[in-house]
Amino acid sequence: MIYQGKVHKYGRDIDTDVIIPARYLNTSDPKELGKHALEDLDSGFISKVLQGDILIADENFGCGSSREHAPIAIKAAGISCVIAKSFARIFYRNSINMGLPILECLEAVDGISAGDEVKVDTNTGEITNLSTGEVFKAASFPDFIQGIMEKGGLISYLKSKVEAEGN
Amino acid sequence: MGMTITEKILASHAGKDKVKPGELINVRLDLVLGNDVTAPIAIREFKKIGMKKVFNKNKVALVPDHYTPNKDIKSAEQAKILRDFSNEQGIINYFEIGRMGIEHALLPELGLVLPGDAVIGADSHTCTYGALGAFSTGVGSTDLAAGMATGEVWLKVPSTIKFIYKGKLNKWVSGKDLILYTIGKIGVDGALYKSMEFTGEVIESLSIDNRFTIANMAIEAGGKNGIIEPDETTLAYVKERARRDFKVYKSDDDAEYERVYEYNADDIEPQVAFPHLPSNTKGISETGNVKIDQVVIGSCTNGRLEDLRIAAEILKDKKVHKDIRLIVIPATQKIYKQAISEGLVDIFVDAEAAVSTPTCGPCLGGHMGILAEGERALATTNRNFVGRMGHPKSEVYLCNPAVAAASAILGRIASPKEIVGSG
User: Fold this and answer.
1) For residue A150, what pLDDT is reported?
2) How far apart are the C-alpha atoms of B18 and B156, rounded to whole Å?
3) Nearest to B4 by CA among B254, B245, B215
4) Is B70 on the interface with A (CB under 8 A)?
């Protein structure tokens, strides 16, 4: 898949409590969650973000709680993919499982600024900064994980297996 | 080359003789867990897969503990999804209010998690059960859905970091201080994707309640799991609870560790994590004069009987400071009842604390003790992120139950020594 959009950039250790505060966890409705994405980190985020925009952060993005509401909120807010130096492990799993594309790329995080226009090819891992012309290469996923991502997430992956087995 | 306890448990549950760090495996699960925040999404996703029944109705646990007793109409709707699904599926281990406890205190207490088990839970503190020598890790709702459907989870075998604690614990220093000290040293991503194995003479001397506290916070260093080899203390705890067979695994002498850290407990005083990261730790002697508005003693980290006993020891015949709200939350009904029969609840109420039915409540800023703008809480909980307990401009400090109790009396972050002398 190819994604293109404007970059919103944040720092390290962005935790799931600021991605979606617990006061909104009494619902699991993506639309409702999307309205409050990153609210406690940047109250202006929701009004800035346009459909397809790209989120960039430093190390350990998504640390803390296991709430899948975090990638759901980010996706529902309009973010097409997230690039970070590293992801906290539950956030990493959740994003793959629910179909939010994520990429780990140290150089891209350092080489891209907020407001830059960026194109991401999740098949090749190529990240192009259209504002500067620079090209970066993200680490590739293991085949098994690639398989889940190609199906659009773990549930579609399992569903296709169940259907194939006639279960 | 031998294997670590984590590698052995994963290998046995993947049907393999041996596994190596980095290997992707499918792990058969002994228990999958969800709560009222994570299970509603999992149940929605489960229904999409097209399977009618969960893989094993005895191996799924659903614990509505976060916003219960129901905080508001929306929370009531979420909790109802768990109740209806449990009825429909015949899930035995669904725990209604009155039988419910905080999941990570409740499941071990009931013998539902045992040494050698492989467990996933859609709650990041699922790593708590490592205290019993089980492999357990937090996942999200979709993993829970898949786990309920298939009884399996895909995992990358983590490499292991070994933590050795030597020496002797100082007075008022507990498992909470060891883990806060450790996170302070290695950082909130110091064990990212890794297994944390806690060993050494200090760990061996610790009670099971203190071990739960340590394993519980492995996630705060980014760890996949935290684990302690079972010993006589573990077996004494599980023997009276286990209703099925279990297996004790131990790390081989020649197991491979990515890294080894060694700490001397003699150097460790009670720790306080300042806002807004659990790694932002200071020794109690370095905290300065920090005035607080609320103290919370409870949570899956420190809401067990021993935690309440220590708090009561300090609060006995004292009063909570006039500017402080002290909230005490026993983690399970059994702990609550024991605290009543031992007279601990009398001590708390006489000290003018609020004592609550089990709930995660304030720990995650859910309900039962939310902070206003500019307020500060000192809590025995596990996270002090921005807005964790309420307003985005409130603050949370983390500590052990003794420091929490002493501070509730004095109205500022304080050492228990100020209340009971050097002991």
Assistant:
1) 85
2) 14
3) B254
4) no
Q: Which two tokens stand for residue A135?
A: 């090209």
Find, in chain A, the residue whose alpha carbon is nearest to that of B155.
A93
* Stretches in chain B below the pLDDT threshold 70: 422-423
Q: Are residues A154 and B146, on separate chains, in Cβ contact within 8 Å?
A: yes
**Would you call B244 exposed, middle or buried from its count of C-beta atoms within 10 A (0-12, 13-18, 19+)?**
exposed
Burial of B243 (0-12, 13-18, 19+ CB in 10 A): exposed
Which residue is listed with tokens 């500067």?
A: A132
Q: CA-CA distance, B210 to B177, in Å (whole number)?
A: 10
- Test B365 with A23 for CB contact under 8 angstroms: yes
| Per-residue pLDDT, A166 | 66
What ipTM score was computed for the predicted complex, to two decimals?
A: 0.94
Task: Check CB contact under 8 Å for A98 and B142.
Answer: yes
CA-nearest of B187, B194, B273 to A59 is: B187
Q: Would you state the pLDDT for residue B86?
A: 98
Instruction: Return the pLDDT at B423.
Output: 45
Q: Chain B contact for A106, CB < 8 A? A: no
Q: d(Cα B124, Cα B140) in Å, to the nearest integer? A: 8
Q: CA-CA distance, B233 to B203, in Å (whole number)?
A: 11
**CA distance readout (Å), B185 to A125, B106, B162, B260, B271:** 34, 31, 14, 13, 12
Q: Is the dihedral of CA B123, B125, B129, B130 positive or negative?
A: positive
* Residues of chain A contacting residue B51, judged by C-beta atoms under 8 Å apart: 162, 167
Domains of chain B with CATH codes: 5-263 (3.30.499.10), 271-420 (3.30.499.10)
Q: If you compute the radius of gyration of chain A from its CA atoms, what whole number of angstroms results?
A: 16
Question: Which amino acid is residue B176, in one-letter code?
Answer: K
Inter-chain CB proximity A66 and B140 less than 8 Å:
yes
pLDDT along chain A (167 residues), means of 10: 96 97 94 97 96 98 97 97 97 95 97 98 94 94 86 91 75
Cα–Cα distance, A119 to A6 (Å, whole number): 9
Report the C-alpha gap between B297 and B307 in whole angstroms. Answer: 8
The partner residue sitting opposite B139, judged by closest CB among A63, A88, A93, is A93
